[in-house]
Each structure stands twice: as C-alpha cells, then as structure tokens.
Amino acid sequence: MSEKKKITTNSGCPVNHYQDSQSVGEKGPLLLQDFFLHEKLAQFNRERIPERIVHAKGTGAYGKFTVTHDISRFTRAKIFSEIGKETKVFTRFSTVGGEKGSADTERDPRGFAVKFYTEDGIWDLTGNNTPVFFIKDPKKFPDFIHTQKRDPKTNCKSPTMVWDYWSLNPESLHQVLILMSDRGTPDGYRHMNGYGSHTFSLVNKNNERFYVKFHYKTMQGIKSFTDSQAEELKGKDPDYAQRDLVEAIERGDFPKYALKIQVMTLEQAATFRWNPFDLTKVWPHADFPLMDVGIIELNKIPDNYFQDVEQAAFAPSNVVDGIGFSPDKMLQGRLLAYPDAHRYRIGVNFESLPVNKCPYSVHNYHRDGAMRSDGNGGSSPNYFPNSFDGGYEDEKYTGLAYDLDSNRVAYYDRNANDDDHYTQPGELFEKTMNAREKENTINNIIGAMRGISGPKKDEIINRQLCHWFRASTQLGMGIAKGLGVDVSEIQKQLEK
Ligand code: NDP
C-alpha cells in the first residue's frame, strides 16, 4: 500500500470533511463559512483553459532525437553537431478541425509538432502529416478555418461552406486531394509521415544560407483506414489514435520517424520552376532528393495529460542558431500568430511551464505577469543595459541578413507558376497513386461532395469539378460520373 497522505486545502490546512458540507443542523441550509466547499467548486469551475481554435484534440509523448548523418555542411545548429548526439524531444499529434472531444479518425489533416530541447534554446517544428497546405497567404486563415468549423446558424458542420470556399480558392486543390486520399484517414499517429511543410533556411559556419524542407518519415510503415473503417471507428473508438500511441509506448514498442531534409541553394531558388516559398507546392524528390539526418523516437507518455499535453505550446518562431526563416508568407504569418495564441490560451508566462521551458539558461528582462513562478528574475536588475548583472548581447548569434529582390510594397507579388494550382495535384493523382488509391480517392471525394446542398449546390459542384478536371481528366471524369453530373456543361466551362 502506498504511503498515507493527509488531505489538505490548497493552503495546506488539513481537511476532515472532504465530502460533507457544513450545514445548520443535519437537514439545514449550508454555511457560508465552509470555505473548503467554495474552494473545491471554484477550482472545478476553472478547470478548463480555452480550447485551441485549431488542433484541439491531441495527444503527446516525450522522446529523443539522435543524429545519424552529418549535415554540418548546411547548418551550424548545435543539435546536428555530431553523429550519435541525442536531444530530448516532446511531440504533440492532433487532428485540426474538430473540438477537443471529437473523433480521432475524422478525415482531417493531422498536426505533428516536435519540440527539440537544444542547448541553444527550444526549436519547434510545427508540422503536419501533409507536405502542403490549403492556402498560401495567412490573411486567408480565419475564413478558411471558419469553413472547417460549424455553420453560424445551425451549429452543424457544413459540407456546403467547405466546398464553396475550396472551389473559390483553387490553391487549396493540392491539399484537398491529399486529404481526400487514403492518407486523409491515417491509422493512428504511428503510421503516418510528418512534414515541416514550410520552407526554412539552414545557415552554416561560413554564414552560407540554404533553403530547406523537413520531412519525418514513419519507420512503422504507412497505414491508412478506408473511409468506412474510419467512419465506424468514430462511433466505436473515438480516441483510437490516442489509445494506440499510449498503448504502443507503454508496451515498449516505441514509434520512430526518420528525419530527412531537402536542400535548395539560393541559386536554385532563383530559377526553380515553382515559387519555393509557396506552401501549396512541394519540391519534387527527383530535383531535391531526401537526405538522411537522424531518428526521432517517442518513448514516454507524460504522467499528466493536462500539465504537459494540454499546456504544450509550439511556435515556428522558436528556431535556433543555424536554422532560420524564409519568405514563405504562411510561415511569416505563423511567426506572429502562434505565440499570440499561447499568450491568450495559457498566459504570458507559458514558456516557464515545464513542458515549454528551455532546460538551459534563460536570461532577459521580461518580468511579472500572471502566474509567474520561476523566480521572476529575483533581485537582479529588470532593465538593460545595466552595470550589475553582466548581461550582454552575443554577437555570435547575429542572424544572417536577407537579400530581398524587391523594395516594392505589394499585396500579391506573382511568381512564375504561382497560379498553377493543377500540375502537382495532377502528378499526385496520375503518377503517385496506384489504381486502388485512385478509386478510393474518387469515391471519398464523391461521398464528401454529396453533402453539398442548398440553392448554390449546382454552382459549387460545377466550379469544383472544373478544378478536378484541370488537375486530371481521369479524376474529374470519375467524380462527375459518381455525382451524376452532365460533363458537357463542365467541358463548356473549361473551354472558356
Ligand atoms: P515521388 O514519387 O518522388 O514522391 C511521391 C511522394 O508522395 C512520396 O513521398 C510518398 O510518400 C507521397 N505520397 C504517396 N501517396 C500520397 C498521398 N496520397 N498523399 C500524399 N503523399 C503521398 O514524387 P514527387 O516528389 O515528384 O512528387 C509527386 C507528388 O507526390 C507531388 O505532387 C505531391 O503531391 C506528392 N508528394 C511529394 C512530396 C515531396 O516532398 N516531393 C512529399 C509528399 C507528397 P511515401 O514515400 O511516404 O510513400
């Protein structure tokens, strides 16, 4: 039997009536002086912190990252300094659109965020299980997410608003196709890939910059559910992915993911046939082959879900020396939005919570704010420069300057091929998918588009069909047939 523990109030006073409220006589009303009743109910009323607007349903695990290959010619980041070097990580997996209690097997992208506790500070790779995204400009994000949530009147999910938006934003097509493929319903979190998705930079010891995409490939093999299997599990086991991860780790079957990179030189970026900073496009492997870097292994489920998973806060702005940003507009938008979301959801001192805290030195002059519990700088000065604490700005960590190719303020600077939303999804469907995946994808799209209803139904269906046709005639034809649409009308629209 475990050691006996005396129950106390939050202030440490022993409690001898944990379950009975004080009353006037045995049957009388309750007394205001039963302060422990108030404490218990007040604490309970405040158990929930705001739910994440996106990525609300998630699960997390600790583990380690081990370097297996030398990439020091591209980056001076200390995490990659030698083969065999290990760094502690925390990973959070999630679905995106659903609420905290939603089912794990929804057709939805999956979040795959990794926090590396490096000696130069926290590095967060806030990735997904898809290499691209629905939009390429952060100003579109609130509108896009509104369509993935609930209708303002019915409070129900609405396929009509989803497809209305996608059909009016053809840049979403690549991501929508991946979402509608078998990979849109992965078998848990152990059998899917992760992608940093954005273009980042790497900077080496000679101050040379390279552009980079991060990939973390599952070493358990890809496994996905069919639409009907995923549908069935939504009712039978809505926490399927959470349970699968916890059970695998608890039995010692630690999931592993191979971290790989694609690297592009600045010269290649200048002449690449796509905009290398466009989040709706990939860099083809034939042009930019994957290079091995290391292995992420997850080996510990946190003892307390709320403390470490619910309060985990990842931000793409958390990069370390040797890793930098790029002009990717979505990345630039996320640099601002993510820390802002955490300050709202968890509070200004979220980075002093154990899961978010840098285990190495943190020293600055930020002070106070709600729930400060890390010493708040003690008696040391709260201003800089000062003559007392020896604080200094380390010149070694000066970021590398960017060469910008324009000084013109623009809302939408078109790059070559930016408006080609069709070639890459077409390649995915025609070259990458096998016959079975093609058939499943077409059926999944038909099933999803059947939900479109209301007075604009035909207009939305026809507009979206034109996009599918532009990507691949085989894909467009399969969907049109399944929806019972007369393709001669679509052909007229495509000829316009
Ligand atoms: P490759 O044949 O070299 O690579 C195809 C890639 O597609 C593989 O990484 C594969 O992942 C992945 N894949 C297979 N089926 C799906 C699916 N249903 N949804 C998402 N990814 C899938 O071709 P390219 O590099 O020339 O790219 C061709 C197309 O593949 C792209 O247009 C893009 O849609 C997709 N793709 C490309 C990626 C890239 O970074 N180049 C990354 C992921 C997808 P795995 O190896 O794990 O099976």
Features:
3 domains, globular, 14 helices, single chain, alpha+beta, Catalase HpII,  Chain A, domain 1, 496 residues, Cytochrome C Oxidase, Chain J
Structure description:
By secondary structure, the protein is α+β, with helices and mostly antiparallel strands. The chain folds into three domains: 1-47, Cytochrome C Oxidase, Chain J (Irregular), CATH 4.10.91.20; 58-135 and 184-352, Catalase core domain (Catalase HpII,  Chain A, domain 1, Beta Barrel), CATH 2.40.180; 423-495, no CATH class. 30% of the residues lie in helices and 15% in strands. It is built from 14 helices and ten strands. The chain has helices spanning 35-45, 141-148, 159-168, 173-180, 227-236, 240-250, 266-271, 305-310, 329-345, 423-432, 435-449, 457-471, 473-483, 487-495, and strands at 58-67, 86-95, 110-118, 121-128, 194-195, 200-203, 209-218, 256-264, 291-300, 323-324. Strands 1, 2, 3, 4, 5, 6, 7, 8, 9 and 10 form a ten-stranded antiparallel β-sheet that branches. A hairpin with a 5-residue loop joins β6 and β7. The longest helix is centred in the last third of the chain and has 17 residues, at 329-345. The radius of gyration is 26 Å and the shape is globular. The structure holds NADPH dihydro-nicotinamide-adenine-dinucleotide phosphate.
